[in-house]
Amino acid sequence: MEIQITANTRNELLLRNEVEFTLTFEGATPSRKEIIGKLGALLNAHEEKMALDSIKTQYGSRIGKGLARIYDTPEARARTEREYIISRGQPKAEAEE
């Protein structure tokens, strides 16, 4: 999997960087957790400060485009992002019986 940053815009009002990227991969589309890990390593950001908004691929293509947001603090992410965006890519909680 290879990630190329196409745009990195600073949003001072929301204390975040908005990152657009192109993803090249072999086989199945990588999971959100793998993409966040690779982006975090590439941009020196911790996963708890990141939110992966979207990944779009075309049928039969091994190239995807995505949008991620990297916040200055985990608190800024919790204040701004919707809960379902934050929970994407996390393991599902086991149902208590």
TrEMBL record:
GO terms for cellular component: ribonucleoprotein complex; ribosome. GO terms for biological process: translation. Keywords: Ribonucleoprotein, Ribosomal protein. The keyword Ribosomal protein applies. Pfam families: Ribosomal_S24e. Belongs to the eukaryotic ribosomal protein eS24 family. This is Small ribosomal subunit protein eS24. It comes from Methanocalculus taiwanensis.
